[in-house]
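Side project, low priority. Logging it here so it doesn't get lost.
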Amino acid sequence: MRTRRAFRRPRVLAGAVLLAVLAGGPMTGLLGAASAGSATGTGTTCPQRTLVLSAMPVELGPLLAELQRGHTESDGGRTYFVGRLHGHAVVLALTGIGPVNARRTTRQALAHFRCGRAAGIAAVVFSGVAGGGDIGDVTVPARWTTGAGKPTFAVSSRLLSVARGLTRAHVPLQRSAAVGDPACGCATDPDAVRTVRVEHAPRIVVGGTGHTTDPFAGRALACVPGGGDVLGCEPCAVQTAAARQAPAFARSAVPFLDPGFFTGYAAAPKGSGYVAEDEETAAVAAVASRHAVPFLAFRAVSDGAGDPLGLPGFPVQFFFYRQLAADNAAAATLAFLSRYR
């Protein structure tokens, strides 16, 4: 079933403390609920849109805050935020965490946005965080793989050339880590409270190979209804569907109750010369390649070197620096869209 409703650009409000997430206490932010609208898919024009994906609410939030003239469309339980970003017709969507979720969401979005028999998505861009080199840097790998001996998917040479033209003058990369809005409390701007500064000036690193792992062993990790800016099912500003999502979460969570799953997840390998390591991008790249849709990913480093606090790596660094990395990835994505024609 496909539905469509008007979407009014939300104000990005946030604020809480990291302990709320670590303690597992969800707080649902109820902002700007969309009003019902009529479908307009039968018009005479069919815009070619850029599909912009993120895995977690913290990653999509900075982009959603910039969306103009927007509305939402729903299909198969997923919500798409449709509008314009920096002059581009775009669709924003959360994939959820993990390669299975990423693959399913990309396929569904490409099937949903059509111009008759032709594709309605002209390019796919991923904006998110990753493990990598220096915290705060934005990596733009030239290719993605799921491991040694596995297929490698090259990104679009045209999109990559646009990314190569980005400099710190074009992209306002942050250096100070923001507290963010871990529990989606919507009390203050997520960037209002800043803590430590990383030891270097973040930069954009273009090229190299990105690596996507599957710590979930081929299973889809369910999002948590009202689950904050990491595990939540929607961006913080519109986390309103906790009751509807709860039954699906309960069914999907069963395979992950085995303690061995968490041991394997924490022990996910890092390093091996990859410029970025995550759990979604290669899955998205594979679907885009299969549909001959140009693809590119901006992955900012949330856990890596240059940490003035000397925190242990993932997941501690991730939780502390996730907002900084998400903001920098979004800033690079927006700058890219401004220059991509």
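Brief comment: The chain has one domain: 2-30+47-339.
Revisit when time allows.
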